[in-house]
Give the backbone structure.
Amino acid sequence: MLELVRIETGAHAAPWTSGRPTGLAVGLARSAEEVEQIQRLRYEVFTEDMGAVFPSDQSGLDRDRFDQWCEHLMVRELGTDRVVGTYRVLTPEKARLAGGYYSESEFDLSGLGALRGQIVEFGRSCTHRDYRSGAVIMLLWSGLSEVLRRGGYRYVLGCASVSLRDDGVTAAEVWRTVAGQVPSGEGPSVKPLHRYPVERLCSTLPARVPPLIKGYLKLGARVCGEPAWDPDFNAADFPMLLDVGSMDERYRRHFGLPAHDGTQ
């Protein structure tokens, strides 16, 4: 792994460490073995947490044709080398070689216009159940920010998946929260190829917006279209677009991005 950032995380020590201080490091996968470890974590998280179905898989791995074109961010637990978090990142240059973005299997991206050449796609985000207090996702965003900084990219596009195992109750709550952000004729937007009818779901049952989506919204990302239905992952996918140039200054400093220069 090409390490990018590490932190001490004694407060987050897992039970099997007997309370001894541990740490986490984020970096880029640099071997087939590391990519396989990532794919195994993805499989475990997606099948257990979302009920995802991988009908063609016999090896306990989540993999598809885009993996070979992506950079894979991975968070390791120092001391055990266990992989506890991951993102995959597809740059616009690699997307052209891959024949497009993964998001195009779910959305029509023509509404993004000229932004398309500056977009980095992030996806397949997952975190081990023992590390969902926030440290891992912040490290992954630190790694993603380093990719953005090095490449000079401005926009980040990805899908925030909401499990439908609760019959869409959480997806409905997310939609109520973000519906006002969706562009109506103005601004960059995408359209789902298979729209999920989230407005038809019961809106009276209590639910919480998932922490990952809350985090995206705090960073300044917005939902740029209606959700798509992903039957394989049993999820409603909300398209998220982040303009790095418009991020709050405190987050830019935290992730080591250049100060905003006031230009658009």
Summary: The chain has a mean pLDDT of 86. The first strand starts at residue 2 and ends at 8. Residues 189 and 255 are 26 Å apart (CA to CA). DSSP finds six helices and eleven strands in the chain.
